[in-house]
Every structure is written in structure tokens, then in C-alpha cells.
Amino acid sequence: MPSATIDFLHTSLTEDIPATAIETPGALLTWEAPGILSVEPHEPSHLPAAIISVGVHGDETVPVRLVDHWLRGLVEKELRVQRPLLVLLANPGAVQAGTRFVEHNMNRLFSSSAALGEDAESRRARVLMKAVQWFVERHPDGLHFDLHSTIKPSDRERFALVPPACAERPLTNLMKWFQRFAVDAWVQNRSAAATFANFSAGLGYLSATLELGQVSAIDEPLDRFMPIIPELEGLAQGPSTPSGHQTQGYQVLREIIRPEGEFEVCLQDFVNFRPLTAGTVIARGETEEWTIEQTGDALLFLNAQVPVGHRVALVIRPN
Asked: Where is the AstE/AspA barrel-sandwich hybrid domain (predicted)?
């Protein structure tokens, strides 16, 4: 019988973290703070470190439960960890409440200038940034996958956004893991935003916001997402191995920002990545109309309900 176990989700939602580390034949797991777990291999290798974060949006419970399952297996199966890991439950308050956020969208707060407030998300973002900085100082070469799920339908079930801070870097290692994680599409975003992935990328990591798929309920069954568990185990245990999964790249043509005054989104039944016809009207404002320029272009994250000055959608084109 295994001598150790871990309950990442339950422990992350409590203020009292275990005083002693969990030791397995493969690694030492230490609670640095609530929702912040470091995993150090007994026999370090040359492999880059990895940060896995979940729960930036508290109602996206599928990634949270998957990581809970993965860590339990890592401990109970006594797997040999070969790279340092930092595992983060980003927004415990929102996870506990079952809401996207408590006061503010946390994925717009990961910069020193954005996280100045004393609201719950700003305080937590500062804690997370400090933890990531501490980890990167110890392990300067690494990867960061910020795991999410979406309620919007998508023609590309699993997709990733690569932040602007990675735009000019070789992405070979990141692409290998996209294939292993069965990512159907990846988008190079060039619009500056204070996302968690862009923060770690600014510290030198290869980072991505990874959308695992559409979820229709907060208690969505995990069955169709379980194939990612052995891939996360593979991430902990060694380098990427070849995968035949095809991943389509996209570029962002422009970002539609909601203007002041009257504004209307004209598309009905929106689907992420669905090709649109040239001339299709996306939205209208008092002084501007947004249309699709070239047949085959698509939209990502269309949301008519955002406040003035926030992103309505990304217009994207396959590479």
C-alpha cells in the first residue's frame, strides 16, 4: 500500500496547510502556502521546470479536478519526477464560491500595475506573482501551462493562446507539448494583457493559456478529459516524446474593443474558430463597423457583455 497521499483541492481551500512535506521515492512535495505546492525531484535532471496553474476562474472546475487527480496519482503511484514543478490553485475563493471571480477577473491582474487593489483577486494575484518569481529564480528555464475550460462552443475543441512575451522566441518545446496535450489550435496573441501566462513569459518561461475544452456544467463529468492525465504524468516524468496530433497555428489580426456609446454585436450562434465569409458584419458602433476581411477568418472569445474599453473579440486567421 502506498504510504502517502495528497488532496490538492481540499488542502488548497483551507487556510491551514500541512506543516510537513510529502516525500515519495520520486519527489518532495511541499506546501509553500494555501494553493501553492512545489514538487522537487530527488534526482534533478537537465529538464526545464514546469508551472501548472488552475482555477484562475473559479467556475472552471474541470482543470482543477484534473490536476487534483493527477497529483494524487503522482504520489500514490510513487512516480519518478524528473523536473521541478510548481502547482497553483490560483483563486481559491472563487473556486469555493463556484463563480468566475469574487470581485474582479483575475486574468487581467498579473502585473505590478494591475494588481494594486485590496480586493480578493488583486491580493491573491500578488501572492501568486511572488510565488512564481521565487520559483523562476530557482529554476530559470521552464514552461507554464495555465489550464482553463470554456462554456463557448468551438470548432477546435482544445486550443492554446501563446502570450505576446513569447512572440519572438523559438516555440519548439511548447509545440511538442501542445501535440502531446492534443491541442487542436494555437493562437499567437500580440495584444498586451496582464494574463497569468504573459506574466510568467515575461520572466523567461515558455507559457500558454490552455483551454481544455467546452464545459456545460460546473460538475461536468471528467471522462472525456481523462486522457490528459497520462500526458501530465509524462510532463512530470520526462521530456516530450513524438506525437502525431496535428496542431493548427493562427495569428491575431486585430482585437475589437468595446467603444463608448451604442454598440451591437451582430453575429448569432457564435462558435470559436468557425470560418466566416468576407464581409460578415461582426459588430456596429456609433462611428464604426467591424467586418470580416477575408473568407476563412474567424473569431475567438466573442462577448457582447463586456464593459467599455474591454475586449469584445479577437479576429484570427490560420497561418
From this structure: 246-318
